[in-house]
Amino acid sequence: MTHFNEKIKKLRKYKDMTQEQLAEYMGVSPQAVSRWETGATCPDISALPQLAELFGVTVDELLGVDEKEKRREINAVITDAEDKINKTGDAEESIIKLREALKKYPNNERLLCSLMYALYVASEDEDLCKEYDAEIVSIAYRIQQHATDDDTRNDARSILFRHYCDTNRKAEAIQIADSMARIETCLERNIYWALEGKDRLDYLKERISDDLHYLLWDIWAYSTHAELDESDKVRLDELRVDLENAVRKLFPVE
């Protein structure tokens, strides 16, 4: 990790800026800038965003954080947390680890969204649902206001939508649903037109697999909620099997 004083000096010289010019921009004395660069003192924490903007870097980069290592660490935490949830259904351990990671990276939107998901999963327990409700809502709105990644914003919106449905706040859920992207305009329905050859075929195979997954889920949901007699349930189950077999024949596993 590059020391903070070395980073400031390096960035100042890269910008072909004198200590006097940097001091004037920051509203401090040239002696203060000199002390920053020798490591004798550091700028006030409130000055870091201004310095980062001047040099065209993030605050993390200004502080010498290795961005690749940071991404690797964050990805590892999120993957581990979600794997544990998917395998065991128990989100409490993941919540603890995500909270620890957020102490180090408190504004990382992906960590926040992953924590929101873990809290949502844990909320299947009625007592935990009451305990985590305000935090789930707070994280969702924090992400909507500050996140720069559209996928993260959409994920948070989707989790909050389901949480509102589960807690019988249907009016709030419908309000969120109205702001969601329509399927006709999403990437998955439109990228086909930009692809050619093998890329297009591979994409279509993947989309058929995804569409089948959602269709089978719809069949299951309908059979669960509809008042069907046994013969109708059998026919729906046969339909599910026929669909799965048809896709296997069309796209056999290599």
Would you mind describing this structure in some detail?
This protein is mainly alpha-helical. The protein folds into three domains: 4-62, lambda repressor-like DNA-binding domains (434 Repressor (Amino-terminal Domain), Orthogonal Bundle); 67-180; 188-250. It is 75% helix and 0% strand. The relative contact order is 0.05.
List keywords for this structure.
254 residues, 434 Repressor (Amino-terminal Domain), 75% helix
- The fraction of residues assigned to DSSP E strands is under 5%
Whole-angstrom Rg: 26 Å
Low-confidence segments, given as residue ranges, are none
Structural class: mainly alpha
Helix and strand sequence:
HHHHHHHHHHHHHH
Q: Indicate the percent of residues in helices.
A: over 70%
Total separate domains: 3
Distance between the termini: 46 Å
- What is the mean pLDDT? 90
The counted number of beta strands is 0
Largest sheet, in brief, is: none
Morphology: elongated
Count of alpha and pi helical runs: 14
Task: Give me a quick take on this structure.
By secondary structure, the protein is mostly helical.
List the helices and strands and how they pair.
Elements: H1 4-14, H2 19-26, H3 30-38, H4 48-55, H5 59-62, H6 67-88, H7 92-104, H8 109-122, H9 126-146, H10 150-166, H11 170-178, H12 187-190, H13 197-225, H14 230-250
Helix pairs in contact: 2-3, 6-7, 6-8, 7-8, 8-9, 8-10, 9-10, 10-11, 13-14
